[in-house]
Write a structure and sequence with these properties.
It comes from Calidifontibacillus erzurumensis. One of its GO terms (molecular function) is transaminase activity. It holds the Pfam family Aminotran_3. About 40% of the residues lie in helices and about 15% in strands. By secondary structure, it is an alpha/beta fold. A 7-stranded mixed β-sheet has the order 4-10-9-8-7-5-6, with helices on both faces. A 4-stranded mixed β-sheet has the order 1-2-3-13. Strand 1 (about 35-40) and strand 2 form a beta hairpin. The longest helix is centred in the last third of the chain and has 22 residues, at about 330-350. Bound molecules: pyridoxal-5'-phosphate. Pyridoxal-5'-phosphate binds next to helix 6.
């Protein structure tokens, strides 16, 4: 495409397209940094012909990589046969039934029933509403309070925004949310304290990502979730695991919470279930909750989306999971995650402005500090500058700056050792340039 046509598209973008989670100011001055037009494997290409490594799997989601013909084929086949039919009330369709059964088989414990949505925010809203509804049915209508962790990210629908522990998302509007509470992300003892302060008879659920993604790839202490499970059981609080990033292999197991040896009461998922090829998400509920819902509900479940159980999306989800299993991508995430950690540690030795590094499967983070001893941060922060420099060098990563100065990594689960080394090489070259 000619430079002129690209410029034309950029100005149309600036005028007509309000980007999600964007710097509106930057967007208005510079326009889009890249207009992508092709993707293959871990690579993206823009209209100017430049190739980038997609070190974030786009938004932590394109786990099987870009441009998979098999997915295109199954989508075409399903679209020609039946793209969509409503699953309201008693109607159903084959891909939705098969995908629900497949996910139930993969999920830990007795998480055996799926409610489908179109993404992570809807999934967390659904889980919050189901938890509250559950307690109404159980004759404890005061149990409506929701507790989440500082720096958590659960989405931007109404409930999921209010459950999000990154304050900026809640400050976007002024709506007070009296039934949402936030607890120090590292302390199970503080969770107990907060439940007792609120009165256990008023608390519906505690929601948490097994490993926080957008908050900075924050990995909990090994026994954190065991304690959380015990506390929730002790006070009858439902435990919702938000597996939107960590589900479907990203952490080296099917679901992130499996690393911690506990089973939640509900689990939300999205992103990796379809690797971003179509919009899909959902909530898994335990057999106990399902049994109680069936036994106690009278009339209609007053919650559902037009696209709950979308036939095309579910067919794509099934094929995506088939690829993950056939290609051993869960194991690859584990192995490449170990390689990534070695690479981070080598960089840490080389650059004294690298503070903590961590990986959890194919999630990774490198923190920058001006001074390792005091933890003092750069001013201006280094990670946003580094990310811009890396884009110039053909690598897309993300920065987290809420309470840290961190580069985060979430490459596709198909990544090879050579491709991972390319990522690490570009990071190294960029840091050498910036130091
Ligand atoms: N939960 C987690 C852990 C996420 O990372 C995200 C998105 O990044 C969401 C929920 C929201 O998902 P969506 O953007 O699909 O609504």
């Amino acid at each position: 495409m000619t430079v002129q046509l690209v410029e034309q598209l950029k100005s149309l973008d600036q005028k007509h397209f309000l980007h999600p989670t964007s710097s509106i100011e930057e967007q208005q001055i510079y326009g889009p940094a890249a207009i992508f037009c092709e993707g293959k494997g871990i690579y993206l290409k823009d209209l100017g012909g430049k190739t980038y490594i997609d070190g974030m799997s786009s938004l932590w989601n394109v786990n099987i990589g870009h441009g998979r013909t098999e997915i295109a084929e199954v989508a075409k086949e399903q679209m020609e046969k039946l793209a969509f039919s409503s699953c309201f009330a008693t109607f159903s369709n084959e891909p939705a039934i098969k995908l629900a059964a497949k996910i139930a088989q993969m999920a830990p414990g007795d998480l055996n029933t799926v409610f489908f949505t179109s993404g992570g925010s809807e999934s967390n809203d659904t889980a919050i509403k189901l938890a509250r509804h559950y307690w109404i049915l159980k004759g404890q209508p005061n149990r409506q309070k929701i507790i989440s962790r500082t720096l958590s990210y659960h989405g931007v629908a109404f409930g999921s925004t209010n459950a999000t522990g990154i304050e900026g998302f809640r400050k976007f509007t002024n709506s007070p949310a009296p039934d949402f509470y936030y607890v120090n992300k590292d302390s199970a003892a503080e969770l107990r304290k907060l439940i007792l302060e609120l009165g256990p008879e008023n608390v519906a659920a505690f929601i948490s990502e097994p490993v926080q993604g957008a908050g900075g790839v924050n990995v909990p202490k090994p026994d954190y979730f065991k304690e959380v499970r015990e506390i929730c059981d002790e006070y009858g609080v439902l435990f919702i695991a938000d597996e939107v990033i960590t589900g479907f292999g990203r952490t080296g197991k099917n679901f992130g919470i499996e690393h911690f040896g506990v089973v939640p009461d509900m689990m939300t998922f999205a992103k990796g279930v379809s690797s971003g090829y179509v919009q899909l998400g959902g909530v898994l509920i335990s057999e106990k909750i399902h049994r109680d819902l069936c036994a106690l509900s009278k009339g209609i479940l007053m919650h559902g989306y037009t696209y709950s159980g979308h036939a095309l999306a579910c067919a794509v989800g099934l094929k995506n999971i088939e690829i993950i299993e056939r290609e051993g991508l869960v194991q690859n995430a584990k192995e490449m995650g170990e390689e990534m950690l070695k690479g981070f540690q080598a960089l840490q030795k080389k650059y004294d402005f690298i503070g903590k590094v961590r990986t959890f499967g194919l999630l990774g983070a490198i923190e920058f500090v001006k001074n390792r001893e005091t933890g003092e941060r750069f001013d201006p922060l280094l990670s946003p500058i580094a990310v811009k420099e890396m884009v110039k060098r053909g690598l897309i990563l993300r920065t987290v700056t809420y309470d840290q100065d961190t580069l985060v990594f979430s490459p596709p689960l198909i990544i090879t050792k050579d491709e991972l080394n390319d990522i690490l090489r570009i990071v190294d070259e960029t840091l050498a340039y910036l130091q």
